[in-house]
Structures are given as C-alpha cells and as structure tokens.
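S1.2 Input.
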Amino acid sequence: MSSLRIDIVSDVVCPWCVIGFKRLEHVLKQYQGDIHAEICWRPFELNPDMSAEGQELREHLQEKYGSTPEQSRMIRQRISDLGTELGFDFQFSDEMKIYNTFKAHQLLSFSELYGKQTELKMALFESYFSEGGNISDTQVLMDVVAKTGLDVELARQALEDNRFVSEVREQEAFWQQQGIHSVPAIIFNQKDLISGAQDESVFMDYLKQHLV
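S1.3 Output.
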C-alpha cells in the first residue's frame, strides 16, 4: 500500500474548498486498499480583518470582487448545483454573512492532536454553508466541536488560553511564503501542488502518474 500525505490549505468559508475536497475524496475512495492518505488541513484566512459580527455576503462580494447581485446569484447557484452532485448541501440566502474564521482555525489545530481534523473541518463547512451558522461565535463553534466527539471543555479552554494562536499564525505565514495566495491549495507529499477545485480527472491523473 502506498502512503500519501495531503496538506490542504483552505478556509472554512470557502465553498470551492468544499468542492475541491469532495472531488479529491471521491477519487481517493476509488483507491481504498491501495493508498493510505493522511490528510492535514492547513489554515488560510480569506478575510483576516473581518469583524466578529461579520458582513453581509452579497455586500462583501461586491466590495471584494466587484460582483453584481446577478453575478453573485449565478455563482451561488452554480456552487449549489455542484454541491448537490457531490453530496454537499449548500444553503445560500440573501441574509447570509461572511465571518472571521481565526477561532475555527485554532480549533482545527486542536483537533489535529486527536486525529479529528477532517471530521471537524466538514462539520464546520456544514455549520456555515448548510446551517448558516456564525462560525466566529464561540458557542456555535462548541456545538460543532460536540458533533465530532471532541471534548468541548478542552476545546473551549484551548480558545480561552490562546494555546494555538501562534501555531496558526506561523502556519499561515509559512504557506504564504510558499506562494499560496488562494485556496484551495492541495499539496501532495509536501512537494506537488494542485491549485483550485480541480476536476476529479486531475487528481486521478496525478495518482496514476505518481503512485499507482
């Protein structure tokens, strides 16, 4: 069996990160028994200066990318359709907000100690995209933590004592220094980069060329 380390640099408010991972996940399932994949989620903040109360998503997209309301609706519909194909429920609404994700990244570092990173990452995606949760809110985050089976009080303490602040900041800086400025960025065996939510065929071709 081949071993494969996969570092995924992403943010929990990035819909394309969901799509990219679900495509990768589907390809990896086809190689069960042939490849042992170790997936490590690495922090990237799309909006590091976002306030705790967040910002209305349509307003944010217009300010950041110049998207018109119609363009925003079309993009959200496309993402929703792709999510349906991949088994993920995107529930966009006109009231949806974008939030600061620094606390969420701290909890992802915490969850890595217990081998629960992917479970927590998917639960965070679902909380935000499927349930409209404010994932900058500590109690919302604790509810997500509870769903993964992690110890809620330990997770709360990790946030309160800022235990993972330096680690997250150092990781963010490291990946930016490696030239990662957009997500998802998927790095195989710490050397081969595939950027963006690529089609399954891209991941399949990589595995055939390098591992299978």
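S1.4 Remarks. The chain has one domain: 2-210.
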